[in-house]
């Protein structure tokens, strides 16, 4: 009987140790699961950051391409095209007396070009918003910035100088195309020019 009691006690102790080890393993598994969840969240954040950087790089590359080859892409609109120096543009806007908000709005345009219209040789400004994938916000910005520049020309008594809005990129989504048509904004997609209102 004493031997049996000793064995039962030993089994009880072994079971207690097993339960303690199981509890420890359960805690370790919970910690591991928490770490895996944390790593998963960090991986998701990293993936988003990489996608964001890739998008920015692609956008910057498209912008550089359109700036570098501006006469090729925008030569249909005017001849003798040149990129307007932002300092000169700032002076022009200051002379026109536009608000500080309007001034900054035009100065942050992706690209402003000046040249002579092919049909009559008059000066023309091209206000271009460039994006790898053109969306509605790009169309809105181009339209708004070109209107500000047109108003500045009128304030300076240069009504004959036009300023047209253009969006340019590798692709233009359907809502952006519809808005460009509605607002009279030209589209340059992968180098191909579409006039406002064209199908």
Describe the fold and architecture.
This protein is an alpha/beta fold and 199 residues long. The chain contains six helices and eight strands. Strands 1-2-3-5-7-8 form a six-stranded mixed β-sheet. A hairpin with a 2-residue loop joins strand 7 (186-189) and strand 8 (192-194). Helix 4 packs across helix 5 and helix 5 (136-155) packs parallel to helix 6 (174-183). The termini are far apart.
Provide a compact summary of the structure.
This protein is α/β, with parallel strands linked by helices. It is 61% helix and 20% strand.
What fraction of the residues are assigned to beta strands by DSSP?
Answer: 15-25%
Count of helical segments? 6
Q: What's the N-to-C terminus distance?
A: 100 Å
Number-wise, the strands total 8
The percentage helix is 55-70%
Order of helices and strands: HHEHHEEEHEEHEE
**Poorly predicted residue ranges:** none
- State Rg: 32 Å
The averaged pLDDT comes out at 89
**How are the strands ordered across the major sheet?**
1-2-3-5-7-8
Overall, the morphology is rod-shaped
Q: Pairing-aware structural class of the strands and helices? A: alpha/beta
The profile of the biggest β sheet is:
6 strands, mixed
